[in-house]
Give the backbone structure.
Amino acid sequence: MNICLLNDSFPPVIDGVVNVVMNYADILTRELESKVVVATPKYPDASYDAYPYSVIAYPSFDTTDFIKGYRTGNPLSVREIAQIVDQKPQIIHTHCPAASTIMARILRSQTSAPIVFTYHTKFDVDIARAVGEGFLKKETIKAMVSNIEGCDDVWVVSEGAGENLRSLGYEGELRVMPNGVDFPKGRATQKMVKDVTQGVDVPEGIPVFLFVGRIIQYKGLPMIIDALNELSGEGKEYRMVFVGGGPDEELLQQKIKNYGIALDVYDEKGEVTHFESSGKKSGKMIFTGPVHDREKLRAWNTRADLFLFPSTYDTNGIVVREAAACGLGSVLIKGSCAAEGITDGRNGYLIDENSSALAGLLRTVCMDLDGMHQVGQHAMDEIYISWSNSVRLAFDRYKELLELKADGQLVRRKHQSFESLMRNAEIALDGTQRAFFEMPKQFQMEMKDNLEELRKGLSENISQFGDIVSSNFDKLNDGFTEIRDKINEKFEN
């Protein structure tokens, strides 16, 4: 099968959805003998040649300050769209409701391949973080939900993720397709654990708690720090290891310093800066920075006694399944998406969403490390799912969609005039790009400035643009056609 995977992020960016896309691409290529192309915004100096599948990186804008660490792709990139079409994709699978899904819809107009969309994260939280609450957030969410409803098959990674998507206004059908884990079932070797923890202050006999993921407040990290501050005030010994990087590292580290808890921070070279406790509180917290080596991550999950994941943001919590693969149980918030499939006290622990509840649980379980390890074993036996099994489920659904398409039973989604709009946008952009490179140098510079002003104007008025698009696609399409014709006439003359 020829399959196109699209996502708005890819290495050098590492996050949960990137991990999903890479595992899909790898297993589809290696185990299911498919021809895979991944389309993603380009990052400067990134190399995409070493992957066993094709990666087409399309032009992007630098929005790393606006959207922490992420660039924004241009989904109307004609050259890259043509390259993807040349791959003759039979299935288009998009993993982000923004640029990736716009490009997916353009690709569908040229290939007739069905679009699968997977809803991974509560994007309303990320939108609010980027643009704040209010009108702009509301209109951006409305536009993204409309984009999702234009896809042919919509998947969610958990029941809770589906509930969240419906709360944003989505009214179509949903299918739960769980993500897997690329860790093999079983603990890392003691040699690997010793090598990875060499020089890190995690002595035997003292409980070691672990968090792996983006260091960002909405994953419940302030709650972890507050809870452990309670234990520190009681003189209890522990180690808390944060593995990952993110925009809130300094803020959270300062919170720890303010509590007077000893802190170790490792830089990219592995050198540590130690901040001694200014008070009488015990305990120590450790920030390792990002760890990309999967075997090293297995080692950290093997060394820890308990995984702390008090996040109500995550829709699936792959890291919880990764911990389970290594026999490590997790603490989760009752009713959260990550807590689906967890039985309290058997294959994990469930708490109310507050630091006192977390502190109370840790106070109790630290008195019985053997019992904690038994919960971890149950987690390994009961909630683990491999990526191989997960992707094979997806592949079976791909085949069902192609059969429905062949029988003429694939239901077309609404807003179909959007397809015509995108075709005209593509034609206009193609003509503009070709003309641009034929212009005198000075005019190129002037046009670059004008295009930058246009981009800013579009960004500031995206909500009004969304209203026009939603209410009157046909008129907008006619207007775009007229603009295209004028551009062509201008350059011909």
